[in-house]
């Protein structure tokens, strides 16, 4: 929930929402995703701009935050919405987002000089060819230079860490009727200058 279009569904917190995914959540950009049986009933997509830390970082200030960025890539923050409610997840949003292969990303790491302003990129997510998300990264509530100081406050974020920055409106959760993905569906996330992933 780092995009302005989602503000109508949530109260905006004073700081970015942070959760982690384990290493086994990683999937390749064109992998088939084998979803656990208990995570299939409300499986959702979240197309996201990602950045990669190029060095170990701690207590970074906003003025030098962008020096931490190795490059940018595309991610899909897969989410089992049936495990998101607090009474089921134990107040841990990450539980429904950290199944194996729930973080496909790629296909490239694109250098910041090529990308330019990361908040002037078009992001599009399609499900079976139907456009579900189609927004500019300029609509993000928190910019990357604000996210990095929050992530590194009093803690070390290691080089190679991939940070997903949130998703725009258009996820299946808020569609009427809901637009969850099911077996055999194809989700494609495209970001201007970064390419596409398809799972």
Description:
The chain has 199 residues and is mainly β. It has one domain (4-10, 24-198): Fumarylacetoacetase-like, C-terminal domain (Fumarylacetoacetate hydrolase, domain 2), CATH 3.90.850. Helix content is 8%, strand content 27%. It contains 3 helices and 11 strands. It has helices at residues 86-89, 112-115, 144-151, and strands at residues 26-27, 43-44, 47-53, 69-76, 79-80, 103-110, 122-127, 130-136, 162-164, 187-191, 195-198. The strands form 3 sheets. The protein has a 5-stranded mixed β-sheet. It has a 4-stranded antiparallel β-sheet with strand order 8-7-10-11, with no helix packed on it. A hairpin with a 2-residue loop joins strand 7 and strand 8.
Percent of residues in helices? under 10%
Major sheet strand order = 1-6-4-3-9
The major beta sheet can be summarized as: 5 strands, mixed
- Rg (CA only): 16 Å
Q: Helical element count?
A: 3
CATH fold descriptor: Fumarylacetoacetate hydrolase, domain 2
- Helix-strand pattern, N to C? EEEEEHEHEEHEEE
Question: Which parts are unreliable, with pLDDT below 50 for 5 consecutive residues or more?
Answer: none
Domain Fumarylacetoacetase-like C-terminal: 10-199
Organism: Fusarium oxysporum (strain Fo5176) (Fusarium vascular wilt)
Protein name: Fumarylacetoacetase-like C-terminal domain-containing protein
Keywords: Metal-binding
């Amino acid at each position: 929930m780092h995009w302005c279009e989602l503000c109508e569904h949530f109260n905006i917190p004073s700081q970015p929402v942070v959760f982690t995914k384990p290493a086994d959540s990683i999937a390749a950009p064109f992998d088939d995703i084998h979803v656990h049986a208990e995570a299939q009933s409300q499986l959702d997509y979240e197309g996201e701009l990602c950045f990669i830390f190029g060095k170990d970082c701690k207590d970074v200030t906003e003025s030098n935050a962008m020096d931490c960025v190795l490059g940018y890539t595309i991610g899909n923050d897969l989410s089992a919405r049936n495990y998101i409610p607090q009474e089921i997840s134990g107040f841990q949003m990450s539980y429904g987002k950290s199944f194996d292969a729930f973080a496909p990303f790629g296909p490239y790491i694109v250098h910041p000089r090529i990308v330019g302003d990361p908040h002037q990129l078009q992001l599009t997510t399609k499900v079976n060819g139907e456009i579900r998300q189609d927004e500019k990264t300029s609509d993000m509530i928190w910019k990357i230079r604000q996210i990095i100081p929050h992530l590194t406050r009093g803690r070390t974020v290691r080089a190679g860490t991939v940070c997903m920055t949130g998703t725009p409106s258009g996820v299946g959760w808020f569609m009427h009727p809901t637009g969850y993905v099911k077996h055999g569906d194809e989700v494609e996330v495209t970001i201007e200058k970064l390419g596409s992933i398809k799972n």
